[in-house]
Design goal:
The protein is mostly beta strands and 650 residues long. The protein contains 9 helices and 43 strands. The strands form 11 sheets. It has a 5-stranded mixed β-sheet with strand order 32-33-34-35-39, with no helix packed on it. The protein has a 4-stranded antiparallel β-sheet with strand order 1-2-3-4, with no helix packed on it. It is elongated. The relative contact order is 0.05.
């Protein structure tokens, strides 16, 4: 076991004996000092030689007692202990690295332990004391550390059950998982073709690779589809994705193939037979993404349904819709009168146009079985015509809720078509989403935000008891809890609405809703209004809002996507102290870090409605980019030092 840098070597002889060697002026390696320690040495690491110096000053040694000590390498006190850090588990790998910090550089001791936790402590360049110890769980295997070069500076590759790259980016320390197979050993590799490569061992193979797209927070895998994906759902038992795809001004696949063959015959070419790929598409010598496709004009639709095995990227079945139909909504439904058998329900529309208004000749609700003779495929049960666009579908207590234009209906499964059981015509424009929350139904209207609906089974009546006081052009939303909604609109706002507690309590005391139902005949809108808890202007049209967890075992976050490809997240604060800290930091940065165009930050974030109960993390992350004097000024106002502020941000 040994640790080396440009001019120094520390070797471990036997179990606990350290021998220190140094390169003299003649280029010879000479022994400087020897010391025997009390406990078994399990890992050693030596600091890099600073610029303009002959030797590094510090040596890190970890022993079998879960202690890590810093020793001096100065001639006056060589191999004398300077500081100690006690860790919860045994260290298996040590690296001392110099990285940028607060406008200068600092030494960091990086430690990998047997239980998969990575520790990082700041090492004082003068006294050798360790401060600001931080920990992060990387995987189930012991963490091995290796020095690598990233963007022209030193970094660390941490290998556990997953590989992590530690480096500085925009004056901030970052740890990013590699989208690669698990590695066992690695080292930095340099050549003309690969200036910043990494050579590694994975299983019984030797691999050389480079790191790309370091600034990306998410890894992605592309699966080509036939048309633009519109909506999708997940089969609860097989976890397969079921997608609906549609494009306007596009020929259906069969018609397009006939046109291509006709063009080839007209040019005197022989028809070329191409084999389909695993995705169900045929490889063409002239790909559409490069050469384009024939365009029939607006109003001509092409649409299909697809069952996709996402982990393998394989299409299990694909069903093309004909007769100028377009799929607009999808859901899984277990009908009660069929002993809970699971069906796929798809809402389609025929001859859809958007001018002078959104309208169609007819809508349909298709019901499919997804298995036939043990094979995963679409099997049509029946097709039910409706008078308007079936914009949203949802299961409700063994029945199917359908939003047909501005009408909300409840259907049951019949032998030849769906059977209408109940409907409500009290919605203003067009229903685009339906959710079920305990005994309540949440309906999203295209222009008038969300409505809370109750179904009175004895009277077979649907009535609206609460809605939003602000008209919103909603695009997507998600339930946070039975009475709370997070959603986004087409103007770039993300907001959270909640049903007041007193209204929810009144519904529990009066489950039939008689008081609300019969005493509000002359009221415009619903008798109760939703409370707006959060509002934040993103600046881009929101396409999707969902409640999820980013890391296994982590807290729930609100994840949103925009039409320009942005993926953002709203993270909940866990303590009042964090709320006060980041609120004050945001307030100071609004003053000290002015936008380039000179616009007031608070005015921008409150473009359509006042910004409420949200701290702008993008603004807070600009703290490392301001000058050192500004950092110190803000840190003093927060009664902290700049290092503590940066630790909070990380």
């Amino acid at each position: 076991m040994a640790a080396v840098n440009e001019r120094q070597v520390v070797a471990v002889i036997g179990v606990n004996e350290l021998i220190y060697f140094e390169l003299d002026t003649a280029g010879q390696v000479v022994e400087i000092e020897k010391r025997e320690l009390e406990h078994q040495v399990v890992a050693v690491g030596i600091a890099p030689v600073p610029g303009g110096r002959q030797r590094a000053r510090f040596l890190a040694v970890a022993d079998s007692e879960n202690k890590m000590r810093i020793y001096s390498l100065q001639p006056t006190d060589c191999l004398q202990s300077l500081s100690m850090l006690v860790l919860p588990s045994r260290v298996v790998s040590l690296r001392i690295l110099e990285m940028a910090s607060l406008g200068g550089t600092a030494l960091y001791v990086n430690m990998g332990t047997t239980n998969g936790v990575f520790f990082r402590a700041t090492l004082d360049k003068v006294t050798g004391q360790m401060t600001d110890n931080r920990a992060r769980f990387l995987g189930s295997r012991p963490v091995k550390l290796f020095n690598v070069t990233v963007n022209g500076s030193e970094g660390i590759l941490a290998l556990s059950s997953r590989s992590w790259l530690c480096y500085n980016f925009q004056n901030r320390f970052r740890m990013m998982p590699l989208s690669y197979v698990p590695l066992e050993f690695a080292s930095s590799f340099h050549s003309e073709q690969c200036p910043e490569g990494i050579v590694s061992i994975a299983g019984d193979s030797l691999r050389i690779f480079t790191t790309e797209q370091l600034g990306d927070m998410f890894n992605q895998t592309q699966i080509p589809l036939r048309y633009t994906p519109r909506k999708m759902t997940i089969h609860p038992s097989t976890q397969n994705l079921i997608l609906i795809e549609a494009d306007n001004d596009t020929y259906p696949y069969a018609e397009k193939q006939k046109l291509i063959e006709m063009f080839r015959k007209a040019d005197g070419e022989d028809p070329i037979r191409v084999e389909p790929t695993d995705g169900g598409e045929e490889e063409d010598a002239m790909p559409e993404s490069v050469f384009g496709v024939p365009r029939p004009g607006s109003g001509k639709w092409a649409s299909c349904l697809r069952i996709l095995d996402a982990p393998r990227g394989k299409t299990l079945d694909l069903l093309e819709l004909d007769n100028n139909e377009m799929a607009v909504s999808i859901c899984m439904c277990a009908f009660q009168n069929k002993q809970g058998e699971l069906y796929l329900c798809v809402g389609t529309v025929k001859d859809l146009v958007f001018e002078p208004r959104r309208m169609c000749t007819e809508g349909y609700v298709h019901v499919y079985r997804l298995y036939e003779n043990g094979v995963t495929k679409f099997s049509l049960v029946h097709k039910t015509p409706v008078q308007d666009i079936p914009g949203a579908l949802c299961e409700y207590n063994g029945r199917l809720l359908v939003g047909v234009g501005p009408i909300l209906r409840i259907y049951d499964l019949g032998k030849k078509k769906l059977l209408r059981k109940c409907e409500s015509k009290k919605f203003p424009n067009h229903i685009v989403s339906i959710w079920m929350s305990e005994d309540k139904i949440i309906v999203g209207d295209m222009q008038q935000s969300y409505h809370f609906v109750k179904y009175n089974r004895p009277d077979n009546v649907l009535y609206v008891f609460a809605d939003d006081c602000i008209p919103r052009w909603i695009t997507s939303g998600s339930l946070l809890d039975p009475t709370t909604i997070a959603a986004g609109d087409k103007f770039g706002n993300v907001f959270v609405l909640r049903l007041p507690d007193k209204v929810n309590q009144q519904l529990e005391e009066d489950p039939t809703g008689g008081t609300i139902q019969w005493n509000t005949k002359d009221i415009a809108g619903a008798p109760y209004k939703l409370d707006m808890l959060i509002n934040f202007y993103v600046g881009e049209t929101i396409t999707k809002v969902v409640k999820t967890t980013i890391t296994p075992g982590g807290n729930d976050v609100i994840l949103y996507c925009t039409i320009f490809g942005t993926i953002g997240a709203f993270l909940p604060f866990s303590s009042r102290e964090d709320i006060d800290f980041f609120t004050n930091l945001e307030m100071h940065l609004r003053t000290e870090f002015k936008p380039l165009c000179g616009r007031e930050h608070l005015s921008f974030r409150s473009y359509y409605a006042p910004c409420r109960n949200v701290v702008d993390g993008d603004l807070c992350e600009q703290y490392p980019n301001i000058t050192s004097d500004q950092q110190k000024k803000i840190a003093d106002a927060l009664e902290r030092n700049p290092g503590e502020v940066l630790k909070k941000l990380e």
